[in-house]
Amino acid sequence: MKERIRVFSPATVANVACGFDVLGFALESPGDEIEVRRRNEPGFTVINKTADTVFPSDVNKNTAVVSLKAYLEHLGSEDGFEITFHSKIKPGSGIGSSSASAAASVFAVNELLGRPLAQTDLVQFAMQGEKAAAGVAHADNVAPAIMGGFVLVRSYDPLDLIQIPYPEELYCTIIHPQIEVKTEDARKILRKGITLKDAVTQWGNIAGLIAGLMKGDYPLIGRSLKDVIIEPIRSMLIPGFDEVKEAALANGALGASISGSGPSMFALSSSLETAQRVAQAMTKTFSQFEIENHSYVSKINKQGPKVL
Questions:
Q1: What is the DSSP string of 192-226?
Q2: Which residues form the GHMP kinase C-terminal domain (predicted)?
């Protein structure tokens, strides 16, 4: 039986405009890279070899450890593990930093133990890491991080996850302004209730987006990437949001919105060339607001985590 394993776990885009808490997809890059090693005694240690990420001093508050503890308790195991982070998505970036860690740890140990659980079954444990990070056990990041592709959360109780087919040539542009928006804080500002009119509009858009993805209908995907409930509130936390979104659309993006709780923004495009042009336009526009930013262009990650 293996004693150690090194894995990659992808960044993710949650909500996808109109799918708050129920839709997300995985990226090919960036992501977390961790190494997990068996210990000779119960318990967990976390080693940080990243350049600029600060971890909680209490390892039991680390999302990777929280998720792994839930997984091992389910198995009735008292095994101990050492988790070494070699690279880490910046916390508070809006592209699934906490979920990448949670997904990586449970995937890695499930592999070390000979896959006692199916990969989809790991989501429920990674959700506990999300609860520790954001106060809510949402699955729209961890589900695609573990399963790959686009994943719809049809129900939370019971948990019902559905992988959604999508066009092969769909590309995502991510622009990450170097400001931090904590998921927990971004949830606190949301309205507790919405109008029936907004609800009907949102239902139509999420249904249209799912249909567009499954049919490979790019115009329908674009028409459906609209959020009338969450984006109008959270966009206020992102300086230059409207201008950056307009720049993406003007340069051929199918649609653009906030990635997760922000501050990162995403745009979907129907080709690599368009996605790269969109990245340049979004970067240039953010720079006009004197905000340092990083951009990524990625295909949709079909696989989820992988062994390195």
A1: S---HHHHHHHHHHHHHHHHHHHHT-HHHHHHH--
A2: 210-287
DSSP category for residue 118:
-
Q: Which of 12, 63, 173, 183 is flagged as catalytic?
A: 183
What are the residue boundaries of the structural domains of the chain, listed by start? Answer: 4-165+303-307, 171-299
Interatomic CA distance for residues 64 and 44, integer angstroms: 10
Q: For 29-63, what is each residue's pLDDT tens digit?
A: 999 999 999 999 999 999 999 887 877 768 878 99
Mean local confidence (pLDDT), 257-276 = 96
Query: Of 35, 130, 173, 285, which is the active-site residue?
Result: 130
Hey, do 4-165+303-307 and 171-299 end up sharing a CATH topology, with the first three levels equal? no
Identify whether the C-beta of residue 206 lies closer than 8 Å to the C-beta of residue 257. no
Tell me, yes or no, if 183 is annotated catalytic. Answer: yes
Q: 63-75 and 97-112 helices cross at what angle (nearest 10)? A: 40
- pTM, entire model: 0.94
Looking at the domain that runs over 171-299, which CATH code has it been given? 3.30.70.890
The domain over range 4-165+303-307 is classified in CATH as 3.30.230.10 = yes
Told to judge if 130 belongs to the known catalytic residues of this protein, a careful annotator would answer yes
The 10s digit of each residue's pLDDT in 128-170 is 999 988 788 899 999 999 999 999 999 999 999 999 999 999 9
